[in-house]
Structures are given as structure tokens and as C-alpha cells.
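Annex B. Sample input.
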Amino acid sequence: MVRKLVIVESPAKARTIAGYLGSGYEVEASVGHIRDLPQPSELPAEMKKGPFGKFAVDVNNDFEPYYVVDADKKKKVAELKRLLKDADELFLATDEDREGEAIAWHLLQELKPKVPVKRMVFHEITPEAIARALENTRDLDTRLVDAQETRRILDRLYGYEVSPVLWRKVRQGLSAGRVQSVAMRLVVERERERMAFRAADYWDVKATFATDDAGEPTFGARLSTLDGARVATGRDFDDRGVLTTRSAVHLDSSAAHALVTGLDSADFAVRSLETKPYTRKPAAPFTTSTLQQEASRKLRLGSRQAMRTAQSLYENGYITYMRTDSNVLSSQAIDAARRQAAELYGPEFVPDAPRVYASKSKNAQEAHEAIRPAGDSFRTPAQVASELSGDQFRLYELIWKRTVASQMADARGSTASVKIGALVSDGRDAVFAASGTVITFRGFMAAYEEGHDTERYADDAAPSSGKDAQDARLPQMAQGDAMNASDLNADGHQTSPPPRFTEASLIKALEERGIGRPSTYAATISVIQDRGYVSNRGQALVPSWLAFAVTRLLEENFHWLVDYDFTASMEEDLDAIAAGDKNRVEWLSRFYFGDADGAGVGEIEGLSHAVENLGEIDARQVNSIDIGDGITLRVGRYGPYVEDTAAALLTTDGSDPKRAAVPEELAPDELTAAKARELLETQAEGDQVLGVDPATGTSIVARNGRYGPYVTELLPEPELDPTLSAAAKKRALAALPKPRTGSLLSTMQLATLTLADALKLLSLPRVVGVDPESGDTITAQNGRYGPYLKRGTDSRTLPTEDAMFDVTLEEALAIYAQPKRGRGGSAAAPLRELGEDPVSKKPVVVKEGRFGPYVTDGESNATLRTEDSVENITLERAAELLADKRARGPVKGRKTAAKKTAAKKTVAKKKPTAKKAAVAKG
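Annex B, continued. Sample output.
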């Protein structure tokens, strides 16, 4: 019997496809990439000093990469090789994009199949789509592989050259990236605009109008012109609070109230009335970018959560492939959407001709379909409700509504605009304006209406206009008709600063600028959040002071790397490499080594040259931000603090300037000079006496030190023999006991610190217990990079600061039983706590790991499957995953490095490459 091996990326995708293919096919998952560029520390000893030693890429030999099989994938590769031995054909069925094509290529290089190989592609997982894919296989697309490899090498060069500069000048553990640093800069620049913003006050007059017919509705209107000059609104002021529209009338409180008084008994009449047709078209079907934006606006899902949920829907056969820049629907999908719209809403809701959408993306890449419900006919949300979890159902419903609505008729109605005038008692002519829209045929709006981000000048719209104007009907009126006015009142406003980015608006800004790929936006935003560059306040993204320091360093020393246009042009070049229009080696060489002199128009100096010729970077200056009024904010090792630099200049005794820690919850635009003064005055200066240690009798004080706030004990002054020489006195002082000290935890503030808090800090390092195997003492300590355990010379990061005080010996031994990660690798707090594992009887938690979320009981780790979500996984499901992991046994450690990549590849526009030749059509 002929056996065919089909390899996909994920177990969920494998299970779904296996159900469609039936006997004769073995469907197995590679579980993502099997190979990658290793960390330099993971290279074999003989290679660490060679050309691959710095990046795992030989920059002097056509940027040749060195790949190794990931340690946790060796068992999987061995299993795939075993299955391939019994197969007559190999189908590589990874996703139809750059990343999927690269996974297929790496599988090909590592498995070295001797049977016919076919590349099987599809953008939805349905029986019909899988059958079509089997009949229409193709060769591996080496251009896509080259494009992915170029991006991977580019990101390695960028990160490994720039990040160490951040470690030296700002803080250890920071990272820089081609897209993440630009995204961070966007958020920081918006906060700078908010910090520089100065509000302006302006007033207007509102009134309610009605006709003599009591059966007609009343409506609100706003004063629009005064003696023919437009009344100023918020958009007429710049961010410094200065009126920029000279012809506009700026009303203050007294002028607005005087107008109300002057119009109290005025005769109002309709000056003009205009009615015009209203038409609104539906939004295009979802792309990756617009799906993330709408999921954020309507479902309050973060981009990472939205993409994770979309992937589970795709892999289980509910929607088409979720990484796409295309708005296009297939003819079958158009027919399905039109048919369903007619069935559910009536034939009049479907236009005569199908709607065709063109991509608006600057860098639209692979020719996928838009994101839509899977299949040649769509299942309604009601039909899948019992099969999907909460987030899955909500996202499927959103996709279904958007797809069906995209093929429905326009919404139609009419918009009426009216101007009503009267003479003020002082003779000036006042005109009020209002508008209203009446929807007579809802069309696509019966199914779906697109969400919108917060608009800065939304309050400037006339009453009954804008979004709220739909179905806001104005009464029957004619020019010259008298109107009855009531509720005349003066209304004060203040201009608002530019709104902060949300995940939705940041994704939109990145896409509009052509920066990065929509498929990577979720990961980009997650990185800047996880690194502490950006935090969420509601849906708004707020940059940290750390982000300010990093952005400043990059702008002043690597300005071209964070330039928006340059980053967008890099994306275009990478797309050109995918299309075969540019040579990747030449492009990488120009990026890394630069042009001849790097000084001409359009020339770049090159990353290597930029790093080598940085010059002296003043770390103190980079980490300082002027707040005003002689106050400077500094980004310190232990967090941001303000310093009274003006007062320091006046002192002659050399004492340190007054400092105060900045609360984490205080956003940068809220730290005004006045607020900084308040912090300096309210946080104690000098020693803050907390009390006496009952165990030692020494006084415990808190201080603001150069490296942040700390607590210490005041030891009694030693009594030394006055006849001792200076050298002997120095030796005697050095031999005396040193006072205990302890830095404040991130959750502590000097103003609220208690004696109990201080004694808790001074109890560190705490002895946790003795390792029964080695006999070494295990201690919990607070170090420069956070809380950690120490056993001899072996240190392990603790998940939280509180763990230093309550971690047990059993828990510490469990941490040491896990594979050692790099610094910070285990520092993240659990995402969820699920309960006790029925087998190990230990607490099970969900954590975020290098390869995504996983569950652990401290002894065994199991990665969440794509159908599992952090929010919805249960203890029973976690126990099942852990039991499966225990049954498969531990991953064996690496013994030898994997073989180097195949011979150098060349990119030719028309000729087949070495990669392409490696795949037989079969």
C-alpha cells in the first residue's frame, strides 16, 4: 500500500487535515521551525572564534547562515525521519507564506528525502480545499525562502549590533529591533507631543430649536458664525494653545455669556436648508491588519490574543489563512456571501454585481484571500456556537459579519443641513448650524458596521452630525420659517492633546507608513510591552521613561535605523527580494557594510561602520530628560527619578542634589514641573528614621541614594585607639562589621515605607535550605537584575520579588530541576494559576515561554496547543498535556551541533536555484 507523509506546522492543523485525507496518508506536525540561527554561546567550541562566532552568520562570505536543529526539536526530527523511511511520497503542507515556505525548506534540508517531494498549499482547511491542494502541488518557492532568510539575518545583525550599545549605556537586558524600535519611537513621539501640549480654552453657544408644529422633533444646534466669521473650535488651535486661524472668532467665557444674554429674546428664522442623498459603502473583507484593529476596537482583544485565536480558528477549519494583506475574495466566497446575505436579509440587500476590492497596502505580499469563513458555503455563527469557545466564537462572528456585509448593498438615506440665524441685541448677526442624517435603507449596516478609533476633534462636530447623526431626523422646515429657541447656553471647552496610540491605531499607523508586515505586528507590540518600553492604560499605550532613553540614544546615534521612511524602504526592498528583483547578498552587504563613503544623497554608512564609529556616548545625558523649572528626570538602574539640578548648582558643599523616585503609575505627560516639585517635597530628604530593630537594637533608616532608595542600619561609631597610625586606623575600620543594606522593591515607595518593610529587606539574603544532593546552601537574594536563587555558583531567576521571602526548599529544588535559561528567562510571573496537578500534587500554572505559553507543575512543562488559549484552558486540560509530556519522556541534551546549511544559495530571477532544484515535482 502506498504511504504518503504530509508535514504541517501544528498538531491542531495535522489533526484537522488527517480527518480529511483518510487512510494512506500520515499527517505529522513539525511544531513550527525545526532549525534556527543559534545563539553564539551555543556554537561548537571550534566555531566560536571563527567567522560565525559573532552572529552565527558569516558576513564576509555572502552572509552565509549557520543553522542548528533546536534542542527540543531533535526528537521530532528523528520521528519525522523514521516516518519518512516508510513513505513513498512527501508532501510539505506548511503555510503559504514566507515563514511557511522557510519551514518547508528547512525540513527538506534536514530530512534529505529520497522519495518524490511535493509542495502542497492551501489557504483554508476544508475537505474541498485539501482535495484541490493535492491535485495542484508545486515546487518550493525559493524566492520566498530567500526573503524570509534575509529578514532573519537582517534582524540578527540589527539586534546583535545595536542591543549591546543599549546594555552599556542604558540598562542590561534591553533589545533593539528593525520594527520594534520604530514602533516604540512612534509611541514615544506621541507622548512627547502630549508633554509639549498646552491647552487653550474656547467657548461656543448651543441652543435647542423647534418649529410651531408640536408633532415635529426638536434638535440641537451650535453657533457657527458671528457677523460672517466662523466661531473657533478646537482644530483652530495648535498644540501650543495658539489660535492659528486668524479669521476665526475666539470666544471666551464673558463673550459667550454676553451672546446668550443678547439672544435671549431674539427672533430666529431658517436662513438656509440643504438636503442631499446619503450613501455609505461597506468595508472590505478583513486583512491581518484590519482584523487586529477591529478585534481591538470591538472585542477588546489585544493583537497577540486576536492572532492566537484566529490561528486556532484557521487550523480547525473555521476560517481562511489569517496572515494576508489581500482584500480579495474568491468567486466561491463571493457567491457564498451573496447567497447568505439574500437568505438572511432579503434579495434587495444584495447588489446586482459582486463587489471587487483592491488592496490598499503599500507592500501587499503573497496572493492569499482575505480572511473569511472557510468553505464554499459559510456556516453562520449560530451553527458553530456550540463548537467554539468564547473568544473563538466572538472572533468568528466578527469575521462572518464583515465578510457577508462586504457583498451587501450600500446604506442609503438623506442628509439635511440647516442654518438658523438671528440678530444679537448689539446688532451682530449670529448663525447656528445643525445637520442630521436619516437612513432609509440600512443595506450592509443590517449585518455589520466598522468601528473607529477615537478622534481628537470629535467634540467640534455640530450637534446631530457625525456618527450620532444617523437616524437624527430634522423637522420639516423651509427657508424663512420662524423657529422657537430654548435652552440657550454658553458651553466651555478645552483643546485636547493628541490621543495616545492604542494597539489598533498603532497597527494602522505602521501599515499606513509601510513599516513591517501586518503578520508581525502582534509580535512587535508584544515585544515592546514585555520589554517594559510600553504599558497599557486601558486601551492606550503609554511609553515608559526607559523607552524615552532608548529612543533618544537610537535617534542621536543610529538615526537612519529608526527613520520611518528608511524602515519602509527596507520593507519594499525585502519584498523586491521575494519577487526576485533584488539580490539579497548585495542588499545585505549594503545594509551592513554601507556604501562607498556613505555621505552621498541616498547613501548609507552601514550598520557595522555606524557601530564602530559611535564615539563617546554620554550615558548620563542619554538617560536625562529636562522637565523644566530646573528639574531633570533621570532613568536610573532602579527606575526613574527626578533631581533638582537647579538647586544643586547653588550648593557649595558638594552634597548630592535632592532626588525623588517617580511612581510607576505616573505617565510621562503627567510629570509636570509642578508635580516633580511635589514629589521632591513629599519624599523625605536625608535619613528617614523608620524605627529600631528589636533583634539588634540598631536604628533603621531609609535613604535616597545615587542608585535609588534603600534601607540600612546605623551602627554605633567605633571607639578606636587614638594612637593608631592612619594606615592602622584604615585597617581597623575595614575589619569592623558592615551595616546591612537593602534596595527597595519595585512595589515600594520611600513615602510609605514601614519598619516591617525595612526589616524584611534587611533579612536578605535568606537561607532557603540545603540541597540534599550536593549539600550546598540555597539562598534567596535581590540582585542587580532582580530576585534570584543561589546555590554555590549556580544562580536561577525567581519569578517575583515576593518569592524571595516565601519560596520553599521544595519549590527552589523544582526551579533548579528545570533547564537553565538565560537571564530573565524565568522571571515572568505566571499568566494563570490553575490548581493542583492530580499526578504530581503540585500547583499548575500557565507561563509565557520562548515558544509561546505553556503549563508547568515545576517538574514537567507542556506547550499549549494552538486550540488552547491562556484565558480558557482548564486544570483538566493542563493535566492532560502534562501527562502526555511525561509519557513522551524528557528532551535529550544536545551532543553535537547540527550540520551547516547547504551550499551557498544564489538568487536568480529566471534560472532555478539550488533550493528549487532540491524539490522534485514528483
